[in-house]
Write a structure and sequence with these properties.
Elements lengths: L13 H7 L1 H4 L2 H9 L6 H11 L6 H13 L1 E4 L7 H12 L13 E4 L4 H8 L5 E5 L10 H13 L4 E5 L2 H5 L3 H14 L9 E5 L8 H14 L3 E3 L11 H18 L4 E3 L7 H15 L11 E3 L1 H15 L12
Parallel strand pairs: 1-2, 1-8, 2-3, 3-4, 4-5, 5-6, 6-7
Helix pairs in contact: 4-12, 5-13, 5-14, 6-7, 8-10, 10-11, 11-12, 12-13
Protein name: Deoxyribose-phosphate aldolase
Catalytic activity: 2-deoxy-D-ribose 5-phosphate = D-glyceraldehyde 3-phosphate + acetaldehyde
Pathway: Carbohydrate degradation; 2-deoxy-D-ribose 1-phosphate degradation; D-glyceraldehyde 3-phosphate and acetaldehyde from 2-deoxy-alpha-D-ribose 1-phosphate: step 2/2
Length: about 325
């Protein structure tokens, strides 16, 4: 489903791309007209498509490949008030070597922590190649003034965060103050820049369970991508409804349409509620069918999960030994 033809392709330069969108983002009214001009979502069709993709059967060598791929896409996460440096170091050790009995198991993509734990995670991971992601902007509520949100981001980047997971102001979005949300994302994006000119990647979390409608999810996806998001992410994992297959499929389709219209690739991260290997494979099938094999990498697709890793490891061992392990085969995060 193609979006309104409002922009030409301009390659991958973000500044040039955003300059070409000046007419769309010049005012709250212009942005509102654009977002409300996006095609409406056929809820029945979307849910049927997601359900159909979830019935694909993946077996033997293809399943083994999918399990390793899913492991390599995980943002292994601890976001609790009781987090300690010891817990973060243990999580980093698990990310580097998920299965101590099998050195062939792949590493995870990133370790995700609060800003004050970024330094601990960075030191523990060393030169492993695993990224450090940090939530920011008053996660998970997003209820704070911009100075606080920017300080949150700046602290994490200064401590060495490779990626920032920000939450949008859902109240502003649901009130129709789209330009306010757009400018907030732009400001956080600017705060991701380091002194040497490089920048942490920005993941923008919508908390889709609070956006009420599929149309709102599509609008939030386009708004975030226009503002410069490197990834769009479903959820914080802190509410009752987190990632679902239809919502993730809708976001994948938005990313596809944005790439076709603007020529820029954006990643997708479903987070929260994805706990089993079967669930993860369903999402990988959706990515392949919607965006193609080039998106089947941790550079463009992530799982925000912790318990998922344990199930993937047990299923991986089942494929290699022919038997299931007990619950003590993996560590409890």
């Amino acid at each position: 489903m193609a979006p309104p033809a409002v922009v030409p392709a301009h390659g991958n330069d973000a500044a040039e791309r955003l300059a070409s969108m000046a007419d769309v983002t010049a005012s709250d009214g212009a942005l509102r007209r654009f977002l409300h001009g996006l095609p409406g979502v056929d809820a029945v069709g979307l849910e049927a498509r997601a359900a159909a993709l979830g019935t694909r059967s993946i077996k033997t060598t293809a399943k083994a490949y999918a399990i390793d791929l899913a492991i390599s896409m995980i943002d292994l996460t601890t976001l609790e008030g009781a987090d300690t440096p010891g817990k973060v170091r243990a999580l980093c050790a698990k990310g580097v070597n998920p299965d101590p009995t099998d050195r062939g198991a792949p590493k995870v993509a990133a370790i995700c922590v609060y800003p004050d734990m970024v330094g601990t995670a960075k030191a523990a991971l060393g030169d492993s190649g695993i990224h450090v992601a940090s939530v920011a902007t008053a996660f998970p509520s997003g209820r704070a003034g911009m100075p606080v949100k920017l300080a949150d981001t700046t602290e994490a980047v200064a401590a060495g965060a490779d990626e920032i997971d920000m939450v949008i102001d859902r109240g502003a979005f649901l009130s129709g103050r789209y330009l306010s949300v757009f400018e907030e994302i732009q400001q956080v994006k600017a705060a991701c820049r380091r002194a040497d000119g490089s920048a942490a990647h920005l993941k923008v979390i919508f908390e889709t369970g609070e956006l009420s409608t599929y149309d709102n999810v599509r609008r939030a996806s386009w708004l975030a991508m226009l503002a410069g998001a490197d990834f769009i992410k479903t959820s914080t994992g802190k509410v009752a409804v987190n990632a679902t297959p239809p919502v993730t499929l809708l976001m994948l389709e938005a990313v596809r349409d944005f790439r076709d219209a603007v020529g820029v690739r954006v990643g997708v991260k479903p987070a929260g509620g994805i706990r089993t290997t079967k669930d993860a494979i369903k999402y990988l099938v959706m990515v392949n069918e919607t965006l193609g094999e080039e998106w089947l990498t941790g550079e463009w697709f992530r799982f925000g999960a912790s318990s998922l890793l344990n199930d993937l490891l047990m299923q991986r061992q089942k494929l290699s030994t022919g038997r299931y392990s007990g619950p003590d085969y993996v560590t409890v995060d």
